Amino acid sequence: MSTAADLPMMHLLLRQGRLPAALSLGLLLVALLLLGIEPGLAMFAAGLLLLSVAVGVVQAYYAVRVQLDASLLQLLLREDLQGDAAAERVDAALHTVGLRRRDAQAPVRGWDARWIGMRRLLVHQYVATLLQFSVLLLAVLWPQT
Q1: With bands split at pLDDT 50, 70 and 90, how would you rate the model's confidence at 3?
Q2: Is 132 exposed, middle or buried (0-12, 13-18, 19+ CB in 10 A)?
Q3: CA nearest 119: which of 22, 3, 1, 11?
Q4: What b-and-e string marks burial along 86-117, b requiring 16 or more CB atoms within 10 Å of the CB?
Q5: 28, 53 in Cβ contact below 8 A?
Q6: CA-based diameter of the chain, in Å?
Q7: pTM of the predicted protein model
Q8: 38-69 per-residue burial string, b: 16 or more CB within 10 A, e: under 16
Q9: Is residue 80 helix, strand or coil?
Q10: Would you say 73 and 14 are in contact if contact means Cβ atoms under 8 Å apart?
Q11: Alpha-carbon span 51 to 66, nearest angstrom
């Protein structure tokens, strides 16, 4: 696989993380609204709403990570970097902001491992949004008696 061709494709793929992030924010607001205005909420339903809020926070974490990766890829595309130079630039940027330790003797991590990690984060983001929706739906449909 050519790294030059993969950078734009992966950037476009990671931008798809915006949809679940927006949906999750809406679901989070609905859960908080239901917790605040529904006086006769069954204890189990309230617990499900709280679980939905917690899963929404987890999804937000994944959304931030996916957006960070997309922004780093955009930086590489703007600077027209490819291959090992691009990988070193990503590691340097992460080290600069304190998100990654830099070991001078460690080899540069290959793009295949980076693609796998980026896709895994995106999949986790979608799964968290689906779980958040499912738990919220179950809480709304739970009998209130």
Answers
A1: low
A2: buried
A3: 11
A4: bbeebbebeeeeeeeeeeeeeeeeebeebbee
A5: yes
A6: 63
A7: 0.84
A8: eeebeeebeebbebbbebbebbbebbebbbbb
A9: coil
A10: yes
A11: 23
For the stretch 58-98, pLDDT in tens is 999 999 999 988 988 888 888 888 877 888 888 888 888 88
Q: Count CB neighbours of 126 within 10 A.
A: 18
User: Which residue, among 104, 64, 110, 116, has the nearest Cα to 90 in the 3D structure?
Assistant: 110
Residue 9: count of CB within 10 angstroms of its CB: 12
Q: Which amino acid is at 98?
A: G
Q: What is the CA radius of gyration of the chain?
A: 20
Angle between helices 83-96 and 111-141 (to 10 degrees): 50
The token pair at 66 is 């996916």
Distances, alpha carbon 134 to alpha carbons 31, 41, 113, 115, 118, in Å: 12, 18, 31, 29, 25
Outline where the chain has alpha helix (H): 3-14, 18-37, 43-79, 83-96, 111-141
